[in-house]
Amino acid sequence: MSVENGIGASVRRKEDQRFITGNGHYLDDINRVGQAYGYFLRSPYAFAKIKNIDLSAAKAAPGVVDIFTGADMVADGIGGLICGWGITSKDGSPHNAPPHNSLAVDAVRHVGDQVAFVIAESLQQAKDAAELIEVDYEVLTPVTNISKALDSGAPQIHDEAPGNLCYDWELGDKAAVDAAFANAAHVSKIDVVNNRLSPNPMEPRAALGEYDAGSGELTLHTTSQNPHVARLIMSAFLGIAPENKLRVIAPDVGGGFGSKIFVYAEETTTIWAARKINRPVKWTADRSEAFLTDAHGRDHVTHAELATDSDGKILAFRVSTQANMGAYLSTFASAVPTYLYGTLLSGQYKIPSIYCEVQAGFTNTTPVDAYRGAGRPEATYVVERMMDTAARDLKMDPTEFRLKNFIQPDAYPYETPVIMTYDSGDYPLAMNMAKDMIDYNGFAARKAQSEANGKIRGIGVAAYIEACGIAPSAAVGSLGAGVGLWESAEVRFNPTGSVTVFTGSHSHGQGHETTFAQIISDKLGVPIESVEVVHGDTSKVPFGMGTYGSRSLAVGGSAIVKAIDKIVEKSKKIAAHLMEASVEDIEHEHGVFSVAGTDKKLTMGEIAFAAYVPHNYPADLEPGMAENAFYDPLNFTFPAGTHIAEVEIDPATGVVDIVDWAAADDFGNIINPMIVEGQVHGGVAQGIGQALLEGVVYDDESGQLLTGSYMDYCMPRADDLPSFRIATTNTPCPSNPLGVKGCGEAGAIAAPAALMNAIVNALGKDIDMPATPEKVWRAINSN
Amino acid sequence: MTTVNMTVNGKKVSADVAPNTLLVQFIRENLRLTGTHVGCDTSQCGACTVHVDGDSVKSCTMLAVQADGAEVTTIEGLAKNGELHPMQAAFKENHGLQCGFCTPGMIMSAVDLVKRNPNPSEETIRTELEGNICRCTGYHNIVKSVKAAAENMGG
Amino acid sequence: MYSFDYERPSGVNEAVSAIGEDDKFLAGGQTLLPTLKLRLAQAGKLVDLGGIAELKGISVSGSEVSIGAMTRHVDVANSADVKSAIPALSYLASHIGDAQVRNRGTIGGSISNNDPAADYPAALVGLGATVHTNKRSLSAEDFFVDLFETALEEDELVTKVTFPIPEKAGYAKFPNPASRYALTGVFVAKTAQGVRVAVTGAGPCVFRQTDMEAALSSNFSADALSGIKTEASGLSADIHASADYRANLISVMAARAVKAAS
Fold first, then answer.
1. Among A19, A27, A133, A593, which residue's Cβ finds the most Cβ atoms within 10 Å?
2. Which domain holds residue B99?
């Protein structure tokens, strides 16, 4: 029996009604009586000492309520921003995490660093006043490039990080790898740069801080993917307020892609300032501020080598990466180039030994942290560019080389040399499916046709894997995480049979209000219109870890299933009592409880009513029908698949036209296929953006951000992208009750490698991202 | 302060505004119609798109005083008598939105697009949506939505 | 935005007499308003030209197309008269900015700003247009002086632009991938007075490519352009494109403009 709008149905989204009619409530749509407006004075320099700040003229400006500097926050005992994941270097030393004040104290370390917070009656007045602040800067020479920052003699950005080094980390068996290379028939090598990106959710970050002098409670409305984590950090480490006096609300949030995981200076300062002035304070970033301060993504420089035997079998893989952390260590920055990167370097392949080392360092740039995929796109890019290079060196078809080296479908659980245990998958199936979808074998004819038209055609494959459903708390704890990564849920029946689900996950575009409701609807037989999903308010939902790492369904959804199981268990007892049967004889399917072998049955609604009006009720049972659950996953999940891109290049201009895209993804079981496809589209679009269009550029000498607006940072538009062909395979995930793997990041992980492999295939030479028309044109015209 | 009079979503409104008040500020702050969003400060993302005298414009790149005497339609004024505009319905039916932030501007642009091109090809839709940025959908389902709406609108 | 005063005159003379030293004319506002928003510019007063009916409209006589300064890009793009007289001009207007920008932006505003990457300057110079102001008429080449600089005096206002109708003309633009301005745009026209090739986006100001004009004069075909290169020195270079690449784009876009010419 299947349920209408249940698991597996492409239910149209419940949340859409308010968004398509303009009735969503994004942060800047929320206002409070008496609210004042905050504006940050930011550093115009990439690196400078602050010798003096003179606020006198600014404080006297019309409409100014107050102006705060770093000294005020320090005097108030407010701590600095933290990094929540400790990485240990090769030599056993902990990573260097220099102080990071919300408002600069003695130095500014990137363009846009916060210098002062001006609060006025209007935003216009706050901006006017900010122009009157006189800051005496001693300008220093900056360094923005990670390789240059790690060179000896580079400007020293923090006293606490000698040589600008954050950590020098390793993973894998170096000796085994060295030995394998020594005996290899072939060694292939690549150098790749993973370009720095700006996440650019369309809603800029914003905050509204309120203070209730009566209760002493602070309320922060903020654009967050994980309001409880924000509250925890602000309370425990910054000392803004005790957790029980701090409420954090993340309302409708307009996209995140990782950038709204982190606890930033602006939100922290806004809530602190609300208490200082005892008035609501609103801060909304404009896009220019977003470019300067939203944590960036990627920015790796990597050298990799692959050893193969005479038969084309992989023997060993060796990777050396430099990772740019920016000016300060952001909330989860340290984990991205290490445990979210090195651990995925086995890809879909049976590789006997792997060794990876990563040097992370500081530069005078915006901090870098997790951005859609976080470490896994970087890993996939290295692995898949490497596989194509090796296939080319070995004169093998790149898909044949991959198929030859894939972990086989009967090999699970499969332990990689980089501490992951893959639980399920069928990599050859997905690759062959993608090849069929794009007519891989017909490529040669299409290439000839393009050539006849004066165009250069290329095809590129990426077989990616990711570790999602982040993550088993014990596992991440042993690797340095400062938090557990379980999830919470409460399923609460109302007496009349409707349901409110409280989840610690947070939706900022993913459609949880629909997907989670489908689970309830399917398992408890409640019409989907009668299910309300509540998230994003620390005063409403149980402590939860939030949404990132494609974890909401695998972890948050599983917590909901656990709570549902408890509801069913209790309902069976009530049903047994009401139908005068033994609990063992009660059968349950989709919200109908029946007595085995009879036609006696009760619906979930009737049982819920009985639980709230317990006139005839089991004596040993609590009334009411609400259950909560916390779910800690047993393992990561491992979505995987193959994407194939086909391109046609105009040699006159170097313009790359994506003429076809085929994706075959294994996300395990799927609750809502429509939403899953949408996630793949969006991920692929961001991956294409990285490969062709996007890249944060700093001026080498001054450290100024040269891509500080949509005039210069190239966002993918509708006419930059093709339509996508998407299909899925399914090996259910064995480690969670829904059998799901997660789909949010796959596209962004697979796409850059597939597209760049296609371009390299067309050009016959290597090229770095983004493959702009000029770069491609130069490659065509160089020898 | 300058007095502006305009008709917004069929309702006559009047207010005294500073000349440097943008139309989008007037809509969001004076009229409290917060469905029109601001996603950039260089007039490119199109989240603030509304119709002025029937044409799509970026309300962040127009002064409120310039709209004096004009008929303005925002996303809140698109549905009539509780019934979704075919474009709104198509975005929902075809999953043309995820986070929803760009959506009001995207829908307003799309309505104008179909007015100008009653039977648009995929290529026309993609080209004509140049002034609207979406970060979530990869545009695939937006294109599908606009095409479906155009068909339903009798193109 | 900093504060400013606002005036909306209904005639050209009124507008000109309203303008003071620190004031600015406001046409479609698609460049001026973003600049003011970012506080990159300041004005004592904005004199809005939107209420001046005499500045709007398109008319075509036997030999020329006349476009009022406050005529929007969308109106030029959609004008049946322009489409039949100078289809390349209509095509160019339909590729300025995006749909919303074309619904507000005007020809007068665009050329008075003289952004080095704007499209219209290529059409004006390529077609040998005449710019009419409240004071005088001057050739497009005399009008566009340098980067963001025109021959306009402080109290001078563009009223209309007249374009002689060519035998054939074409425009090809390579947009900046991010901003969608012209990274390089080439307007080619075959007129009774000879062939004109105007380049925008590639340098600090629109310019004529005279080598190409000479080659096309004897043989108006894309083949005639093969081998003709533009010196990269003097062309613009930025994070989007080097001078060398822009020089290449001039050749490629010129050939495409010739092919498209009708």
1. A19
2. 86-152
